[in-house]
Automatic annotation (TrEMBL):
Domain PhoD-like phosphatase metallophosphatase per the UniProt entry, residue ranges: 41-266
CDD domains per the UniProt record, alphabetical: MPP_PhoD
Protein name per the record: Alkaline phosphatase family protein
UniProt xrefs under PANTHER family: CALCINEURIN-LIKE METALLO-PHOSPHOESTERASE SUPERFAMILY PROTEIN
Taxonomic lineage: Bacteria, Pseudomonadati, Bacteroidota, Flavobacteriia, Flavobacteriales
Amino acid sequence: MKNRIILFLLPLTFFNCKTAEVTENRIQLPTEADFTIAFGSCNRHNVKNSLWDDVLATEPDVWIWGGDIVYADTDDPEKIAGMYEVQKSIPEYAQLLSEVQVIGTWDDHDYGLNDGGVEFEAKDESQQVFLDFMDVPENDPRRERKGVYAGYNFKTAEGELKILVLDTRYFRSALTPSQQKGKRYEPGPYGEGTVLGEEQWAWLEKELNASEADFNVIVSSIQFLSNQHGFETWGNFPHEVDKLKTTVAQSGAKGVIILSGDRHISEFSSSTLEGMSYPLIDFTSSGLTHVYSSYSGEPNPYRLGEVVAKKSFGLLRFNFKTRQVGMEMISDQGKVLNKLVQEY
């Protein structure tokens, strides 16, 4: 790991020489990246992941699991633990663990129930197994409280970055089945149900309100902005979307970015919030070992650029001096599939 002190996110432009150069569609590491995050989701432990060497090549300061680390889909914690052990034994991932700090959250398949939420009866046992996999100490607050959400502060000589990892499973209310053909779910009645639950909401608000970081990264396993595809999304609870937007805008937290996964596609979404001088970006990166290969299009009024339906991971390079964040979707052999620069 790089020499960091770890205490445990403008106008839109394309990549240019001030942030990063893309040579022959491959990564050219920028010298001015003060902090680098790599993240991804949807990883089958029994399918070869060809991206770990590419992740390491970007020299990230931290790797963030966005959920679906393994595909367990069981209420047997011993079976889930066994799959996590297989994942840890993969040499390429073991090398990442030895060189880079790893943090993250779960989604439905490693949680144990497809599209599952608060109703999953084995969630407490599954939580402990997840924390074991993440090497969370026995005296960590997550060992006693409900949910796997957590906050991390990274201080460098150039600036400070905060990462707030959410749990969109443990407390999430039941979804509303869709009456439309081709859609699984639809928005429920406004004001009914929750994504985060009361305790986690209070924690998130406190963390954002108190943040003095130059950038604040919020990790959500499911998409926040894209809301018309009929699958899981914050949009199934529209009042919760409004609440998070208001919480972010009123907190005064600087440089807020949302990272998400789940969908087996990658895309950038953007929304302008009242009272904020920069747009809120939702960077979706999914999946690592398998993707929505039959993707032929879906509505997303917030989308920037094209959808990527190829195996990839997400990369963010933060420059504290210029207040720019370079974002890339990277596939095997370091090929850059999509890119974006946001100034804060």
